[in-house]
UniProtKB/TrEMBL annotation:
Alphabetic keyword roster: Isomerase
Record-linked SUPFAM superfamilies: Tautomerase/MIF
Top-level taxonomy: Bacteria, Pseudomonadati, Pseudomonadota, Betaproteobacteria, Burkholderiales
GO MF annotations in UniProt: isomerase activity
InterPro entries: 4-OT, 4-OT-like_dom, Tautomerase/MIF_sf
Pfam families associated with the record: Tautomerase
Similarity-based family: Belongs to the 4-oxalocrotonate tautomerase family.
Protein name as it appears in the record: Tautomerase
Top EC class of this enzyme: isomerase
Length: 76
């Protein structure tokens, strides 16, 4: 019984959204479940997928808050 946790920053991927959409979450769940089936022969019905959305101010990257890291990376 595999359990997969996916952590993403809470921000929209489409204009007007501020989080991952239900459709995007459904695609992630399906894709991860099928990947485990195809690679490890784990049954889809026995796979659990948890999606955690983390506020951007709680996400660090390269020693910086994610927004600051992205700004600096864009300048390079």
């Amino acid at each position: 019984m595999p359990i997969v946790t996916i952590q993403v920053t809470r921000e929209g991927t489409q204009p007007g959204t501020d989080s991952v959409t239900a459709d995007e979450k459904a695609q992630l769940i399906k894709g991860v479940s099928h990947l485990l089936r195809d690679v490890l022969n784990k049954p889809v019905e026995a796979t659990f997928v948890v999606i955690e959305e983390v506020e951007k101010e709680n996400w660090g990257w390269g020693g910086l808050p994610v927004d600051e890291y992205r700004k600096q990376r864009a300048l390079k």
